[in-house]
Hints:
By secondary structure, this protein is α+β, with helices and mostly antiparallel strands. 49% of the residues lie in helices and 18% in strands.
Amino acid sequence: MVNRYLEEQGALVPAAALSADLGAIRLALESALAELRSISAGLQLPQLSDLSTREIAARAVRDFESKTGRTVDITATGDAANVSLPVKITLYRLLQESLANGYRHADAIDLRVALAHSDSNLHIEVSDGGGGFDVKAKALDGGLGLTGMRERVEALGGTFELDAALGKRTHIRAKIPLRVPGAGDE
């Protein structure tokens, strides 16, 4: 059909050239599809609803360690099982993104996760021993990781703090209420 149209337009294309072009297009599409599937697989959440905050943190760390071969020092004070699902998801995603940032930008040097509970809040701290970074310059680079973490935490009524500077250990701290009104699991 394509060749007939090209013939009518006076632009004959040898079948071999057309076949090669279609083959290259098909290969590019298959490659893009494989990449999209890989990205999508990374976005899938594990089953979190039945896990406590301590178990979720351990799961996020274990997943990171198995993917990167790096180790993370994790400490948890207390535990909370009766936590809103949006809080559990935010905890997992915050740890996932923070550890990935530590891997990409700090070579996963001395990664630490600390989890603590108060009566009504979950306190999370993730830090790395890399060379730090200029927060003002980072804000201009258009990255979505830090912004996404901040928005997730603040959407639940929590607070997000980034403590970073060149030549200094980077700390991400978040405080999230354990229960979120309207989450449907009160």
